[in-house]
Every structure is written in structure tokens, then in C-alpha cells.
Specification:
3-dehydrosphinganine reductase activity, membrane, transmembrane helix, 315 residues, NAD(P)-bd_dom_sf, Ketoreductase (KR) domain-containing protein, 5-stranded parallel sheet, alpha/beta
Length: 315
């Protein structure tokens, strides 16, 4: 198994114990720390865990390094990203912040998925040519990690929300494209997770630069100790994602608030399960909850803007 991870968020859920894993990120030292954590949780000494330094936003390097691995992956988890230094309002952040957030959240996923998809397709062709017998059927999986931020436009997340919306669009479109490649040799499956805030080193960094308005709107004004008690851990979120992938879910929402927001923004994505719960939540959100929430959020923005103008006038 090939696991593309952002270092610091790498947790090994039970569903991955026993798999051969390769993790990629730019910095080798944090990679080595993550590798040691995974090794400590592995099921047996025969399980291979590799840590490879790679800039996942560099398409030629992704192609080169992925192609040099000792075995072809069965699954690709695209979890790199975050917005530890790009939070802020559009008028306050720099063009570099916009570009950097798109690179580390969207391009890392797009480049990795494209390279892996091409490698799988080539392997399918070779499998058919190598043997006259029916080849062993394989399941190829790409799992994108977007964010619940893709469902709601909170001021302060403008760089991050845009990038995560792009990841969601990538997953939606690739889900349809992947149907073209499934056949007697392989089945291609695409999944996309939309976690809400959870406790991680990246979240702690975000809290340092996140506007107070953003914190009030998303409910993260409490102390880190209180947030740690209230929010899920990265391991809990990872375990939920793995379980949902094994169930075959496309849209994965590990928290109730993410599930409710997804129901309000289903768009081209397939509904979860039979669709009954999503349809019910969509009706509640569209006609009752969201109109109220939107007006509340708009009022908060107006009040924050008034406070800013008053402060600037007094300086």
C-alpha cells in the first residue's frame, strides 16, 4: 500500500495495520519520526514501512519517485495539505499565500493521483499481455482528503476553502472518469473525505494566525485544552476514513456537522448509503437551518467589519 501523508498527521488506524506502507513528504526528519510511529504499530516484522522525501507539488519528481518504488501500490491516500500559514482575509493575505495553499492542498493530490492512475493503467495492460489466463482482479483505490471547509465559506479560510473545493471537484470528476478504466483486470474506486476540525499539530498552528471572526464562526474560540476534549483526534478521524473506504463510501464525513453540510452541498456527488438520510438532511438544511445560519454568519461579518472601522478611526 502506498500512503501519501502530510507529516504530523500520520496516524495508523487499525485498517492499515499489516499493510506495506510508503509515506511521502518534503522533509525527511519528520518523515522518519512518522515512520517510527508506524513501525511501532505494525502487525508483524514482515510489514515494510518506507519514508521517502518528495515535493508532491513537483509533477516530474512525483512521476520519477513513484515509478522508482519497489512495488506498485494498491491504494493512494492523498492527505497532504493544511493552512497553517495562509489563514486570513483576501485583502490581508498575499498572492504567494494563495498560490502556496493551492499547491500543497490541490496540486499535491492532483499530481499524485494522475501519476498513480497512469501507472495502474499501464500495469493493467501488461497484466493482460503477460498471461493467456484471466489475470487476478485488483481493486485500485484513490482516497482524497478534502475538508468540511469545502461546504461553507467562512471568512479567513478563503485560500484554504478554494483549494479544498478544488480537491472535491477533482474527486467528483475522477470518480466518473475511473468508471472508464474499470474492467476484468481492475476496479478503480475513488473516495473523498471531508473532516471538520480535529486536533493535530497543523490545527494548533492554524489557531495562532486564524482571525478571531473565523474562530467565532466555527466555534474554536475555546482554549486548546477545551478543544482537545471536544474535537476528534487525528487517529479517530483516520480510523473513520479507513472504515468508510472499506465500506465503499465515496463521500466520507466523520463528524455530524460535516455530514449536515455535505447534505446541503451534495451537487454531483453520490449520496451516502441509500440517500435517505442525506435527502432528509438536505431538506432541513435548505429550508430551515441554513437560511438561519447564513443570516447569523452575515450579521457576524457586518459586526466584525464595523468593529474594524471603529478601531481604525480611533488610531
Amino acid at each position: 500500500m502506498l500512503l501519501k501523508a502530510s507529516v504530523g498527521e500520520c496516524q495508523l488506524p487499525n485498517g492499515l495495520i499489516g499493510a506495506n506502507i510508503t509515506i511521502f513528504a518534503r522533509r525527511q526528519q519528520p518523515l522518519d519520526v512518522a515512520r517510527d510511529e508506524i513501525l511501532a504499530a505494525r502487525a508483524s516484522t514482515s510489514q515494510e514501512v518506507r519514508a521517502v522525501s518528495l515535493d508532491l507539488a513537483d509533477a516530474p519528481q512525483v512521476k520519477k519517485i513513484f515509478g522508482s518504488q519497489p512495488r506498485l501500490a494498491d491504494a493512494l491516500y492523498c492527505v497532504a495539505g493544511g493552512t497553517s500559514t495562509e489563514t486570513g482575509f483576501l485583502a490581508d493575505i498575499s498572492p504567494i499565500d494563495l498560490e502556496q495553499c493551492m499547491r500543497k492542498n490541490y496540486l499535491t493530490s492532483a499530481y499524485s493521483a494522475q501519476v498513480m492512475l497512469k501507472m495502474w493503467m499501464e500495469d493493467d495492460k501488461e497484466s493482460q499481455n503477460r498471461s493467456q489466463q484471466t489475470p487476478i482482479h485488483k481493486v485500485r483505490q484513490i482516497v482524497f482528503v478534502s475538508s468540511a471547509a469545502a461546504f461553507v465559506g467562512f471568512p479567513g479560510y478563503i485560500a484554504y476553502t478554494t483549494a479544498k473545493c478544488a480537491v472535491r471537484a477533482l474527486a467528483d470528476t475522477l470518480r466518473s472518469e475511473a468508471l472508464r478504466y474499470s474492467g476484468p483486470t481492475s476496479t478503480y474506486r475513488i473516495h473523498c473525505a471531508f473532516p471538520s476540525n480535529f486536533i493535530s499539530s497543523a490545527f494548533m498552528d492554524e489557531q495562532k494566525s486564524k482571525p478571531e471572526l473565523t474562530k467565532r464562526m466555527e466555534g474554536t474560540t475555546a482554549s486548546m485544552a477545551e478543544l482537545s476534549r471536544r474535537l476528534h483526534s487525528s487517529k479517530q478521524v483516520a480510523s473513520y476514513i479507513i472504515a468508510a473506504v472499506r465500506r465503499g463510501d465515496f463521500a466520507i464525513c466523520s463528524e455530524l456537522e460535516a455530514a449536515v453540510l455535505f447534505a446541503n452541498m451534495i451537487g454531483p456527488s453520490p449520496m451516502r448509503g441509500l440517500g435517505i438520510v442525506d435527502l432528509f438532511l438536505a431538506l432541513l438544511m435548505r429550508f430551515i437551518f441554513w437560511p438561519i445560519a447564513r443570516r447569523r454568519f452575515d450579521a457576524m461579518c457586518v459586526k466584525d467589519g464595523t468593529s474594524r472601522k471603529t478601531h481604525e478611526a480611533s488610531v
